[in-house]
# Entry
Amino acid sequence: MFILEKEMIEILTILALSQRMLFKNFKAFIYGGVLKIILFLPILPNSLSLKLFLRGLFDTDGSLKFSKQSKNINYYPRIQYAFKESDFSRDLGTFLSQAGFTFCRWYDKRDKEYYYQISGDSFLHTWIKTVGLSNPVHYSKYLYWKRFGYFIPRSSLAFRMNALHLKTEDLF
# Structure
């Protein structure tokens, strides 16, 4: 994909503004001799910055999984986030809703984590078109699933790239 210079400048400006707003909302304090860090949800001025935020969050902290559902192969896609209990993890659904995604959220008492899951073919295709992926591991999983109709759990990036006849630099 080719990006014009003007578009690139606009994207970088939005990223810089989003980063500045994110760190404005980043607070640290000492509690009982331990540094506690709280991350509040940033204020995202428009849908592009929201999508860029969700993409970055997914690329670093999300996972793309495939479950068996009613077949003997892993074919059903799920985008999943898992975060330790915090204001941020409790409120992440706000961003997903603003971006137009239907999701399932649950709290695991044992791990003390909130899970968010976006399930199904149509939502995965919508995610790819609107939010996108910048992580080669996630993107190769998507391409493998799209081409073969299923996914092999615990397959390596090298295996997927070989099966797709691609090199990492061909992905983006």
